[in-house]
Amino acid sequence: MSTSSPILIVGSMAFDDLDLPSGKARDVVGGSATYAAMTASVFAPVRVVAVVGDDFPEHVLIAMQARGIDTRGIERANGKTFRWAGRYDQDLVHRTTLDTQLNVFADFRPRLPESYRDTPFLLLGNIHPGLQLDVLEQVRSPRLVVADTMNFWITGEPTLLASMLKRIDVLIVNDEEARQLSGIHNIRRAARDILARGPKRLVIKRGEHGALLFDEEGVFAAHGFPLEDEVDPTGAGDSFAGGFLGYLATQSDVTPLALRRAMVHATATASFCVEAVGTGKVGVLARDEVSARVADIQKLYEFGASTM
Amino acid sequence: MSTSSPILIVGSMAFDDLDLPSGKARDVVGGSATYAAMTASVFAPVRVVAVVGDDFPEHVLIAMQARGIDTRGIERANGKTFRWAGRYDQDLVHRTTLDTQLNVFADFRPRLPESYRDTPFLLLGNIHPGLQLDVLEQVRSPRLVVADTMNFWITGEPTLLASMLKRIDVLIVNDEEARQLSGIHNIRRAARDILARGPKRLVIKRGEHGALLFDEEGVFAAHGFPLEDEVDPTGAGDSFAGGFLGYLATQSDVTPLALRRAMVHATATASFCVEAVGTGKVGVLARDEVSARVADIQKLYEFGASTM
Q1: Which residues of B touch A (CB under 8 A)?
Q2: pLDDT tens across B137-161, in order?
Q3: Which of A246, A293, A248, A299 is nearest to A271 (CA)?
Q4: Which positions fall inside the Carbohydrate kinase PfkB domain (chains A, B) (predicted)?
């Protein structure tokens, strides 16, 4: 990984209680920063800024370090770790939030260790847009800033969100969020509206269907990989973002071609996430597994001329 | 079109009353055979077997003839033409059937003119599977048989449907129908289950997201073209089937490569259907328009190397 640039990821670390069709899973280690760090670490050195409570198991941090993840930016606060509980329907398409306990995450103020401030690649996970702006003040001339957000901030903090959008290179949202942010249902027109608000490129995730990239070249579609075994979609979006930035960190330049390849790698890392409960798969993911999945995804669009 | 093989299409012709976000449209000429014939006729000579009532306007049949559609198999029965009424939601994603009047379609018994019996390409539109089998008895050694079906027959006529599936080359259904037919939610496993029931290839349509082809080569994904203006999705699935078979009729062999190209052409013809009320666009569609849209769809997967 010596040729990859470091990535800084700011987001949540959590315990999730999951009611899945395959059964109930309790105290599952999750959070946006956790999933994104694990998939990004397949490609590049990762630095994490997050907060956990005194109940968070040390062995998880040690396992992250073993994957090249710098955990010095993970603050251990007095109190309990952020906890989310949700129930998925039989088809894993819809989910209901049963409980959210912010706990130590309620007072999270991202503070970057000095050694993090020159990180060239930055992922602003889904936290308060004011905190995302605060992180941007603490980094020095990053090469690429990617941000996520959610419905809660779109309706609750439109002004700060608008400021954040003006300062990032890539926004990654799902189709519902794109529609809510723009007020436009049509995906293509929604994308144009959002790009006019600041971000140079926009990625719209569409669940199992894959994701669209809108940039100066036009539209690129990374088709979702049809999985045989879908177990738990929790963290798939964050695993996508981690794979996206991770792949870009292996490239010398963020070109339109690199972005398109990053989309396919991101689709691959997201697909692994769904194949196990929690971080069961992304926590042990190897680069050659990702490469094989990328090849499988590319085959989805191949015209099969070689077989003629 | 002299190099294209003829296509026989059996299905419904109808009047639709549509409540669209853009307004109400009444007495819109529709039906599965109508849409499929119009898009197939972009590529090849088309022969239609259907029934209309004495209220069906002669000028529509004349316009079809002008596009190379042989209408001698369209029976004009005493009574009213099949009529469907539906309302779409604001986002054109969900629709509610408000009324269905089978009228002359209730007694439809497809009878092929002698001149139709040697047609090499056959599209069995969504009619009673017993009638689909009846059509198969009337054709002589077709090169390719493609069939559509729907929930109503999956639950209501499982035995006849099973017989039909054993005798076709390609089944085209949407994802809901694939799940209902197989009893399996996972698309990949549902596809394997359906292929084991007879059809050599399976196409699963997924609305705006495009369509998947499952065949002996594996899986191929034709991404939906993100449209700026979505007006009326009525007939999009039939326009897909017509474009699919139409493209194949221009090819000397039904190879895996030809099937993949047919998927992209089908996605293109379906996208035009959505851009106007009823057959407003597919009824006047030109081959070069389809070629341009196919190029736009292929650009969706391009890695943009040429722009580097």
Answers
A1: 90-91, 185-189, 206, 208-210, 212, 217-221, 223, 226-230, 255-257, 260-261, 299-305, 307-308
A2: 999 999 999 999 999 999 999 999 9
A3: A293
A4: 27-280
